[in-house]
């Protein structure tokens, strides 16, 4: 089955700086890669996703890049703000015949220092 | 439009007791999922339902059963709770696979 590794587990950055979270996956058949943000006491919420036919996607201060050859994808947050503090999860999904659910990384606790 | 709702929000069980976690969505989604979240483990898929009338095992199905009651509702049952099932349980739904999954607020379960 799919295995998703996520690094770092904790990331502390100064407000206004950029943050980068990296994930690798093992199943070359995976073709859908969402990123979720989870605030304390709440369920995860999608912030951005990318499919394997696209190398990069951007939405305001958030961007995701995908390298299919190396089997890794990254989340980039620019001009970080206090409300960006949360736990972020990457995930991968195989629509070619594997389980319908997502395989998640173990999460990155992003801390924005004022 | 409430999205995905889960009941109860909190539950404490004794070892060996049974209970059912309820989940409902009002977005007319075909696919529904149950995940558990443990510290440092991320979210792991327990069971999923690709469409009404179908269910399949995920990564960690042992000790659980599910029912897709209709298109809106997907329940998770613990027949004989064990301390290892102490976790936060999330239900999610999506139009179909490989589309955005919408998560409920979670059920925090403690088994003593």
Model description:
The complex is a heterodimer of chains A (114) and B (112). With 114 residues, chain A is mainly beta. Chain A is built from no helices and eleven strands. In chain A, the strands form two sheets. In chain A, strands 2, 4, 5, 9, 10 and 11 form a six-stranded mixed sheet that branches. A five-stranded antiparallel sheet of chain A has the order 1-3-8-7-6, with no helix packed on it. Chain A is globular, with a radius of gyration of 14 Å. The mean pLDDT of chain A is 92. Chain B is an all-beta fold and 112 residues long. In chain B, 0% of the residues lie in helices and 52% in strands. Chain B contains no helices and eleven strands. The model of chain B has no long low-confidence stretch (mean pLDDT 94).
Question: How many β-strands of chain A, per DSSP?
Answer: 11
CA gyration radius of chain B, whole angstroms:
13 Å
Main sheet of chain B? Answer: 7 strands, mixed
Span from first to last CA of chain B? 36 Å
Form type of chain A = globular
Largest interface: A-B, 27 and 26 residues
Flag low-confidence runs of chain A.
Answer: none
Rounded mean pLDDT score of chain B: 94
For this entry, what is the oligomeric state of its chains? heterodimer
pLDDT averaged over residues of chain A: 92
Tally the helices of chain A: what do you get? 0
| Category by helix and strand content of chain A | mainly beta
